[in-house]
Amino acid sequence: MKKLHVTIRMVMEVPDEWVLEEVDDGISVVNIGEGKYMDLAAEPLITEDKNGTWSNDYDDAFANHILDMCSSEETTYVLTEK
User: Fold this and answer.
1) 57-69 per-position pLDDT tens digit
2) What are the extents of the domains in the chain?
3) Is 14 within 8 Å of 2 (Cβ atoms)?
């Protein structure tokens, strides 16, 4: 069995009102206002043509199979002023 290491780094420009909040188990989420919170996570995309259109059009069994392969996932949020 091989190990696949995936690194995703994303920088977003977000409204000043968005703030980081910690949930009961200690992880951070983004308070995006109006009583809504956001967490970002990796989501598999699939295609039958590697140069074509990619989508998340798959069944729960496939998604669960992929997620079962994940031994760890880490999401870190940092909010900075411009």
Assistant:
1) 999 999 999 999 9
2) 40-73
3) no
